[in-house]
Design a protein that fits this description.
Elements: H1 15-21, E1 27-31, H2 38-52, E2 58-63, H3 66-80, E3 87-89, E4 94-97, E5 101-107, E6 119-125, H4 132-141, E7 149-153, H5 161-170, E8 176-178
């Protein structure tokens, strides 16, 4: 298979959506209502991360339970199905892109299963509903690569990593952003 990148069209993002998901800071927390476009925006963003990143890079989409990550997987595959150079490993819920770039869709229900890889980008979907141990595990996978993370979700309590990191971004702490 050729490693040549093939141009293809992705759905356009509206201005606030693009500003949030394309913020250049490493850790971006996005709090918003249901159906505001967080998932679609982050799918488009992570496709960009996957295509700009090095060959053999690994990218993760993580949700609190597998059925939630599977919804994002189906949406992502709808965008990429038929684009030369992309294929799916259906049994693993993984999309393989040109240059053997891997995009895995995972569950956070067992945080210990999230350690070990060097991840080039990560989206934590419904991050306010994840155990802090899971957020910490994904963060640890991006430390070597300095891979960007997007934490998306609704406000749900104050004693979770998404809420805490959102406040860090809101206060302007270096490396964090809030939208």
């Amino acid at each position: 298979m050729s490693d040549a990148l093939v141009p293809f069209n992705l759905p356009p993002l509206y201005r606030a959506q693009r500003a949030a998901v394309c913020d250049p800071r490493r850790i971006v927390c996005i709090e918003s209502t249901t159906k505001a476009g967080k998932t679609l925006g982050c799918i488009v963003w992570q496709i960009g991360q996957m295509m700009r990143g090095p060959a053999d890079a690994e990218h993760w989409w993580v949700a609190p339970v597998f059925s939630q990550s599977e919804m994002a997987y189906r949406e992502a595959w709808k965008m990429l199905r038929g684009v030369p150079g992309f294929r799916q490993l259906l049994s693993e819920r993984t999309i393989i892109g040109p240059g053997d770039r891997r995009w895995s869709f995972r569950s956070a229900d067992k945080p210990d299963n999230l350690y070990g890889s060097a991840v080039s980008s990560a989206v934590l979907d419904e991050a306010s509903r994840m155990k802090d141990d899971a957020v910490d595990a994904v963060y640890s996978t991006t430390t070597v690569t300095r891979g960007p993370m997007r934490l998306i979700g609704n406000v749900r309590g104050r004693s979770n990593r998404h809420y805490q990191w959102s406040r860090r971004g809101e206060s302007g702490e270096a490396g964090f952003a809030y939208h």
